[in-house]
Amino acid sequence: MAILVYEGWDWAFDRTSPALTNTGFAFSGSAAGIRAGVFGGRAVEMDGGDASWTYTWPGGALGSMSFGIRLFAFVKAVGDTDVIQFRNGTTVLLQLSQNTHGIVRMHRGAALGTIVAETGPGYMRHEAWQYLEVEMVRDAAVGQLRLWLDGVQILDASGLNLGATNPTNIFMTNLHAMDDFYFANTATERQGEGRMQGLLPTADTAAKAWVASTGTNNAAMVDDPSGFNSDTDFVRSATVAALDLYDVADLPAGVATVKSVKTRRVSRKDDATVRSLRTVLKSGATSQNGATAAQITTYDIFDDVYGLDPNTGAAWAPSAVDAAQVGPQVVA
Ligand SMILES: [Ca+2]
Ligand SMILES: [Ca+2]
Ligand SMILES: [Ca+2]
Fold it and tell me: Is pLDDT larger for residue 72 or for residue 268?
């Protein structure tokens, strides 16, 4: 039981950003881009015919899952419109659709086939951001599907035929925008509506062992406000154990509950030798090491997710998030 991913795309994604393979997401098509998120920050949109994305969860096929996603569905013609496909590889197993009456349906098979379960009318709207949450148990006889829209349950169906094959990924085609995604590997982990808030480094701290590519303000090298800027400015180190920690922007006013904190590093090596890095999160007196990852010469993304404050072992207080420091460390 675990949340496998949180993603809010506030860190700008575009077609030339580093590969997103480490996040589980794959985008394709020339029309996938970024747009403003509904609560600030950024979101992803697919506004053309060839755009799509796939989220593949680690560990292979899963029969039970929970996920949430903020959706913006553009105007479509009359009839059912594909919203989310559940696939095994590229084989479409199940499809969630909406139609012009606001009905949300689950179909078994490709091409919006057999309707397995559906809501009443008046739920999902066009040209409006809505938060859709899904809890599903895939089974050919006793399948379960529960749906929430903007925190309100709109479907609770059981005894369903949801097919005989577990999906490995979910897939969304064109004409949608999305934000604030989470995915968990059981059918009982609905988080409720929330949002991801991106926070960038703001200042150096006493732990300052890396070297800025220009000047001496390390945090300013890694706060790329318009998105990852590749080799334009960066911090570097070839010293084992060298640690750089930065203060990070505070949460917006009014945040009462923090469900999870994720650190994100974009890094690469330019050595012809083995190099590995980790991201360190310091909360209070506790320095928590993230996963160590070998580096290649191409930039990639490395995330660590902390559902609890490592300094207390309890849920994050907003004040603890505000006080936290984050930065990279050379492992080898
Ligand atoms: Ca966002
Ligand atoms: Ca930079
Ligand atoms: Ca702060």
Answer: 268
C-beta atoms surrounding 217 within 10 Å: 12
Q: Is residue 12 located within the same domain as residue 127? A: yes
Domain check: are 66 and 134 in the same one?
Answer: yes
pLDDT tens-digit profile of 59-70?
Answer: 899 999 999 999
Q: What is the pTM of this model?
A: 0.88
Residues 137 and 226 in one domain: no
Asked whether residue 166 is domain-assigned, the answer is: yes
Q: What angle do CA 22, 26, 30 make, to 5 degrees?
A: 140
Domain-embedded: residue 162: yes
CA of 261 to the centre of ligand 3 (A): 13
Distance 41 CA to ligand 1 centre (A): 5
Polymer length in residues for the chain? 332
Which ligand has the minimum distance to the alpha carbon of residue 35? 1
Cα 16 to ligand 2 centre (Å)? 15
Is the residue at 191 inside a domain? no
CB atoms within 10 A of CB 155: 18
